[in-house]
Amino acid sequence: MKLDRSIVRNVFTASSLAVLAMLSGCGTTGQQVESEVAEAVAQQINDVPEAFGEAAAQAAAIPVGWVDEFHDDTLKALVLEAQANNKNLAAAAANVNRAQALAAQAGAALSPTANFVAGDQRSGSPSSDVASASGQSVGLQVSWEADLWGRLSAGERSATESFRAVQADYQYAQDSLAAATTSAYITSIEAKLQAAVAKDSVSILTETLRIVQVRYDNGMGDAQDVALSKSDLASARESLITIEGSYRDSVRALEILLGRYPSAETELPETLPALPAAPPVGLPSELLERRPDVVAADRRVAAAFNNTEQAKAARLPSLGLTGSFGGSSDALSSLLDPANLAWQAGTSLLVPIFDGGARKQEVKVATAEQEQALAAYGATAQTAFSEVESALDQGTVLANRNVELAEVATESAEAFRISQLRYKEGEAELLDTLTIQRRVNAANSSLATIQRLQLQQRIDLYLALGGDWES
């Protein structure tokens, strides 16, 4: 009798539909889990204000491309180079690919598997070394596990949410690298400015020593003034050596971020970039949806909830459906003869009875990981709020400090100019002149530092707000 191939398909399909019809609605849906996640993460955040304390009037959409706000082509090129060559970022990108593959692998468990099999069957007796051929066989084996309680779909959702978390981690790594590169850039330029201040100090003290030496040679000064001038000049030279070493270290740190060899040979501008305008900060509630590390923490909570559902479903019975179709014959040429073809279909029910408590402990482990993910989300959100508020506060503090330090630098320079004239005329002591000169140097040094700190505040604020570095 000729075999009707549709029998296999019909029997297999009928068995599947019958079982699934009886047990439909038993599993937990992804929408139900997501609802539980939203409720759980909301409980981790307490007393979120309607606006950030330092900038209630600045609520607006956060612009992208914050690196462009510095209007520095050199900086932009360095950030792009770091994004292309940084080794840590490359590792993070590989982790994204890994998570994506794991998500696809978990989803594959929901689909049937089919394998082609072929063999050469032989038989014989233990007392004989001679084996006789009994024929060849070919066939197709199909198997599928019915997702009765949503275990497989929960596993797929967990892997997918983990993938989304890793994607957000990668985005935050990109933003953090852009911020770190910008920070290293401005730190290196500040070190260069500090070296310039130190060189100015050496030049001034060299001229002061010349004047003191001339006065001493002409009997108008004393040896104490000469020794004091030489001491201050040597101290200034030592400071210059230290600062130049710090500059080279800061350039090496930048070169490591760029993926270059740390040779300290990268050429940098002589001045810091202009201070960008303060960005709008948006609302605290929006920060939770925008900042990549908070999004990653949220998705890890979702993955943990689905893991728990998967562990719970693993304690329930599972149903497998199998089918095979193929033929066997003594002669290879007649393998596909309808008379030699056969099919087989069946179901298998696996009911866990005793496993030493392994599945129960898996549920406890998943529940603990769920609690851990929730706590981590709450901590990440609190850190995000704190970083925004601190950056906003520092913006006000640094702006006020810059005003005062600019006045200190201006007035100190004027006082030193007058002191030099008075010393040349013999109306002022050298020690007073040197004291004022040190104040000038300190003021100029502090002014360079405060300008760098203001730029750093902008970087910190953009990163804290979850601003994207790319335009």
Quick structural overview:
This protein has 471 residues and is α+β, with helices and mostly antiparallel strands.
Essential attributes:
single chain, 471 residues, alpha+beta, Outer membrane efflux proteins (OEP), four-stranded antiparallel β-sheet, 10 helices
What would your notes on this structure say?
The protein has a 4-stranded antiparallel beta sheet. The longest helix is centred in the middle third of the chain and has 67 residues, at 151-217. 64% of the residues lie in helices and 10% in strands. The protein has helices at residues 6-23, 30-42, 73-85, 87-108, 151-217, 223-258, 284-290, 292-313, 358-424, 430-465, and strands at 113-123, 132-146, 318-329, 341-350. Strand 1 (113-123) and strand 2 form a beta hairpin. The protein is elongated. The two termini are 71 Å apart. With 471 residues, the protein is an alpha+beta fold. The chain has one domain: Outer membrane efflux proteins (OEP) (Up-down Bundle), CATH 1.20.1600.
Task: Describe the SSE topology.
Elements: H1 6-23, H2 30-42, H3 73-85, H4 87-108, E1 113-123, E2 132-146, H5 151-217, H6 223-258, H7 284-290, H8 292-313, E3 318-329, E4 341-350, H9 358-424, H10 430-465
Antiparallel strand pairs: 1-2, 2-3, 3-4
Helix pairs in contact: 2-8, 3-5, 4-5, 5-6, 5-8, 5-10, 8-9, 9-10
User: Judging from the principal axes of the Cα atoms, what is the shape?
Assistant: elongated
The residue ranges in which pLDDT falls below 50 over 5 or more consecutive positions are 7-25, 56-60
CATH architecture: Up-down Bundle
Total tally of structural domains: 1
What is the ordering of alpha helices and beta strands?
HHHHEEHHHHEEHH
Strand order of the largest sheet: 1-2-3-4
Report on the biggest sheet: 4 strands, antiparallel
Number of helices: 10
Strand coverage percent = 5-15%
Distance between the termini: 71 Å
* The first-level CATH class name: Mainly Alpha
User: Based on helices, strands and strand pairing, what is the structural class?
Assistant: alpha+beta
Q: Indicate the CATH topology.
A: Outer membrane efflux proteins (OEP)
How many beta strands in the DSSP annotation? 4
Q: Determine the fraction of residues in helical runs and give it as a percent range.
A: 55-70%
From the structure provided, what is the oligomeric state, counting identical versus distinct chains?
A: single chain
